[in-house]
Structure formats: C-alpha cells, structure tokens
Amino acid sequence: MAADTRDRILDALEKLLLVSGVAQVTLEGVAAEAGVSKGGLLYHFPSKEALLAAMVRRLGERSDQQLEDAVAGGTTVTEFYLQIPDANESEELSLFRSIIAALRTVDGQHDEIQKAVTHVMRSWDKGLQTEIADPIQAEIIRLVGDGLYLAAMLGLPQPDPELHRQVVERLRP
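Structure tokens predicted for TetR family transcriptional regulator (173 residues):
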C-alpha cells in the first residue's frame, strides 16, 4: 500500500510539474492532487527537494528496467539508445512525462535534485561505455540518441526511416 501511495504522490508531482513548473509546485498542491493529506505526503517525503529527487530516481529505475528488458530481448545498448521512441505506446508516454517533469526540476537551486538528475543521466552513459571501447564513439551515440529522444518528446519531425536505419548501422560498434 505504501508503494502505491508513493507512486500516486510522484505521479501527482509529475502532472503538476508538467502544468506549472517547479517554482509553482507546493507540497500542499501535490498532496491534494494525489488525494493524500500533507502529513501523509511528508511521511513519505520530508521535503519538496526529497520529493523531487525521488521522482528523478524513479525515472532512472524505469528507464534502467526498459534497457534491461531490451538487452535481455537481444537488443544492444547502442540499438536501444538510437531507437526512435514510440510516442503512442503508454510505457513510452509515461517515460516521456517523467523525463520532461525531471528536466523542469533542474533549476540550479536544489542540490539533491541536480545530483539525482546527473546520476540518472550518467547511468545511461555507463551502458554505452561498457559496450563501446571508443569513448568518442560512445559519446557520439549518446548525443544522437539524446537528439532523437528530444525530437520525439517535442513532436518534431522524425528522420526518414531508411536514413535512420543507415545512421544506426554506421554507429553500431
């Protein structure tokens, strides 16, 4: 039950961040959106910073699980990182919302949140660096993957499928 409440609170936080941004989010507002008392929220998250950091850590756990599942299914880390996200799939949409909400928390004023975002982003790099011996190649793949993901999140035009296939083929170790 506690895990359900935590997730409900974190989902409410994400929703409010997407609507109004970190400066406008209050503990009271998150509690109301989640349908819990402020005391119930504080039981799980003693401060706004702890709440925001927990949301970022949950994002990391979700994305790590997606990568683990993909690799177990035979996808390389490179292929996973260079895929064009499917904005119509509910799991992808959930991750999109989490990423956008997390990025809205990075305002330079919250040390714990900044560390959590940095940790999540660097953990994604580790898989590429483990798979690819050349650090320059790993960084190029990370940057291309970040661009593809950002374009999908913002609804920007996606590359031609054949051109995308050729890019992946060229960058694959």
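Residues 50-171 form one domain.
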